Write the structure tokens for this entry.
Amino acid sequence: MNILITGLNNYLGKRLALHLADEGYRLSCLVRNEKYFLETTENHPNLSIITGDLVRERYTPTIADDIDVAVYLSQDSAEWGEQYKNLELLSLINFIKQARKSNSQQLIYITRLRAPFIPEVQQILIDSYMTYTIVRISNIIGKGSILMEMMKKISTRLFIFANQRLVKMRAQPIALQDLLTYLNFIILNPAAFNQHFDIGGPDILSYKEMLKAYMKLQKIHRPIIALPSLSNRLSAIFISLSTGVSVPTARAFGENINEDLLCEDNHIHDLFPHECLTFEQAVQVALT
């Protein structure tokens, strides 16, 4: 099976590409910078590279016409404004053009929970007359994932300060291996055609509960001090000091997470019953 995939400069993109290559799929990886991609991803006989720009519609070499599935990993960011949203949607539209030319039988669009413009994306996919699947994912627990790296950095502080609002926010983190299993199920599965799935783990936990569970497994003892509600600027400074991310990114993170990040549509579990790892089990796997 031949797969066209783009959006490979994030954590999930690289792991998904290598997972599918290991499963025997032949992947055409559409990337902007071939050198950067090869520096951060191991070589694999089932991976071939296409250098391209979906906004300017330039591709080297030309995309083959025998693609079975096209996978688009969204690069949306909480920091982006209307201009970047329009560029992201234009990028998707041009990717759809290539998928149609390549005779793709399914387009899989993968983004995060609470992605800001899912209705626009869904309308674009409907208007394309392609068979599509939209997948929204929760926080990923895996070696080197953003959530794991943040908990690792935070737990090194002698005192952990956190915005009270953010401490209470709940999410459904999922083990990387479980997420990859679900995505493997979706590929060219008629039961997933023209469907919209939210994928998360079995545990609903606050970020404070996640951090405490992580530190318990690591045998780290640190006080977590919940600060009263602060202005977003002050909150961003504390997040930046705790995690090492930039202040603008921390501010965007705080603005974006204003309610629980929980799966709203869990019917993928009815189509594909799969026992996922608990949060603690997933963390243990990531640590080893």
Q: What stands out?
A: Residues 171 and 262 are 5 Å apart (CA to CA). The chain is about 40% helix and 20% strand. The first strand starts at residue 2 and ends at 6.
